[in-house]
Every structure is written in C-alpha cells, then in structure tokens.
Write a structure and sequence with these properties.
The protein has 326 residues and is an alpha/beta fold. It has 11 helices and 11 strands. Helix 7 links the parallel strand 7 and strand 8. Helix 6 runs parallel beside helix 11. The site of 6-O-phosphono-beta-D-fructofuranose (F6P) has 10 residues, from loops.
C-alpha cells in the first residue's frame, strides 16, 4: 500500500453551500495526520491547466460559514478527453500529489471514476450538490441549505399570494430529480408538488385546485421541480389557464439563489464528517469510493455504484405529502 503524503482537493460541477466547510475539514484532518494538501482551482480544468497551490491551516480560516467554493468550480470539457486526462495526470505527478479528493455531483464522480481507471491515482469522492441525487448517501452537501433558501423565499411569496388571493407556481432546481421540490413543498405547506418521479397530470392538478376552490381556499402555493415532465412552471401555468383554472395565477422561479448563501448547520456538520472521513479513508488505503452518510452512519460506496444508480425520492415523504397537500 502506497503511503499517502500529499492530497489534492478540488470542487467540481455546480457549487453547493458547504463545499468550503468540506475543504476545511479535508485540510485540517490531513494536517492532523501529517499529510500535505494542495488545492486545485476551477475543478478538473485546474488539473489540466496546472492551477494548483498548497493549502495551509491559515488558508481555510473563516471559510466554514461562506457559501460557494474558495477553490472555484467548473464543468471541464478538456477533462472529458483522454488527452486532457493524460495531461492532468502529468501535472499531478509534477506536483508529487499521491491522491485526489473530488467534491461534487454525479458528473464529477464520473470524472473521478474514469480518471482512476486510466491512471494510477487513488481518488475519493465527497458528494456535494444541491440536487441530492447521488446514490450512496442520504444527503449531499448543499441540499439542506438549498431547501432552506427555497422555504424562506416561499414564505415571502405566500404573503403576496395571500393578499391577492392568487395561486403561485414556484419552480425550484433539482435537475431531473424532485428532492428539493418535495422537501420544500412539505416544509412550506404547498397544496401540490410536481416532480419527475411521480408526475401529476395537468387534469389531476386542475381537479385538485377546483376542489380547493370549492372549499373556499383563496391562495395556494404549488412547487414545480425544474425537471417536471408536464412542463416547467410557466408551461404548467399556461396549461392550467387553458383548462380555465379557477385561480388567478403567477409564476416565480427561484433559480440560482438556491445555490448561494451561508451553509446551514446541517450542511456544515455533514461537510465536516465527510471531509474528515475522506482523508481517513485515503490514509487507510481506500480508493475509488465515495463517502456518505446513511442512517446516520458514515459509509463508503464504490464510485462506480454511486454513478450507476440513482438516489430515489423518499417514498415516506411522498406518502405524507399526499395527506398534507390540501
Ligand atoms: O446541479 C446543480 C444545479 O443547480 C441543478 O439543480 C441545475 O439544474 C443546474 O445545476 C444549473 O446549472 P448551471 O449553474 O450551469 O446553470
């Protein structure tokens, strides 16, 4: 087993609140174990373009509460090519980096898997994305903050919805999954949630709204996941209009606000756990795994499984939401 003396850490793909806390945990754990850390800037692009700097205790001071990522992020086209990855491996060797920790979403994990298969470098993944769509962990870093941001926005939207007796269709992120939408809907008391995993037809939605109108419900909030198969929030509004919806309707797309802001305590703690466990795992000789938390226990999943499987929606939450969306 090769001794790990120098770890490279990078953040890749869409940024997520709590990535900084994870970087901090990696650097501080590595220092405690006598291992050097270097930060790779701009994700995989930074390896190809040699944007690598040593990270010290001082460099990660005060970043625990900051959103975004101090290492910056990108989605690298060059790293998708064999030549780009070969160049990346040369750069890593020049810096005498023995192992990589990649913090990111499923695209970043796929990059990690391919890189490790092609070159002799141990890689460990840390799931960081607001989408919560990665298999091998109950929660990804950034998801809790994104949900809290969406819930805060909806509290404001509710004030105006209520004053004008309006229906608001609020679109949240999540790519092709409904994790953010479902949790946001439950926490905001929405009357419906439209997710890719259990789509509600426009007719069903229309009938549900007609029922609410018959019960004299004057204002309503519906959460639409951006990947909803019956359309985005604007399209759903248009389709409802065609069916002569009984409510005056407005649309609000929360967008990238969900990716910013100070990370929640839950995301900071998760980042601390996963950052530390990733370093411990590397030192223990693990490679090609992603660290995660399942049922409150730290676990490792082969990156291959993490990228080939999906984190399904929480069925219990879906069931509960059926009762409460009235
Ligand atoms: O994966 C995170 C995410 O915010 C998704 O929810 C969203 O679909 C996508 O990234 C947006 O990507 P971009 O920041 O490149 O517009």
């Amino acid at each position: 087993m090769k001794l790990i003396k120098h770890i490279g850490v990078l953040t890749s793909g869409g940024d997520a609140p709590g990535m900084n806390a994870a970087i901090r945990a990696v650097v501080r754990t590595a220092i405690a174990k006598g291992v050097k850390t270097s930060g790779v800037y701009h994700g995989y692009n930074g390896i190809v373009k040699d944007e690598i700097e040593p990270l010290t205790m001082r460099d990660v001071r005060y970043i625990i509460s900051r959103g975004g990522t101090m290492l910056k992020s990108s989605r690298s086209e060059e790293f998708r090519t064999t030549a780009g990855r070969r160049r990346a491996y040369e750069v890593i060797q020049n810096h005498e980096i023995d192992a990589l920790i990649v913090i990111g979403g499923d695209g970043s994990m796929t990059g990690a898997k391919i890189f490790q298969e092609e070159h002799d470098i141990p890689v460990i993944g840390i799931p960081g994305t607001i989408d919560n769509d990665i298999y091998g962990t109950d929660f990804t870093i950034g998801f809790d903050t994104a949900v809290n941001v969406a819930v805060d926005c909806i509290a404001k939207i509710r004030d105006t919805a209520s004053s004008h007796d309006r229906l608001f269709l609020v679109e949240v992120m999540g790519r092709d999954t409904g994790h953010i939408a479902l949790r946001t809907a439950l926490a905001s008391g929405a009357v419906a949630v439209l997710v890719p995993e259990g789509p509600m037809s426009i007719k069903e939605l229309h009938d549900h709204l007609a029922y609410l109108k018959s019960r004299n419900k004057s204002s309503n909030i519906i959460i639409v996941a951006e990947g909803n198969p019956t359309g985005n929030a604007f399209e759903v509004a248009e389709k409802l209009e065609k069916l002569h919806s009984s409510y005056e309707t407005r649309v609000s797309v929360i967008g990238h606000i969900q990716r910013g802001g100070t990370p929640s305590a839950a995301d900071r703690v998760l980042a601390a756990e996963l950052g530390t466990y990733a370093v411990e795992s590397l030192i223990a000789g693990e490679r090609g795994v992603m660290v995660g938390v399942i049922n409150r226990k730290l676990v490792r999943t082969r990156i291959e499984d993490a990228v080939n499987q999906r984190n399904g929606l929480n069925e219990e939450l879906l069931r509960i939401s059926d009762y409460l969306s009235v």
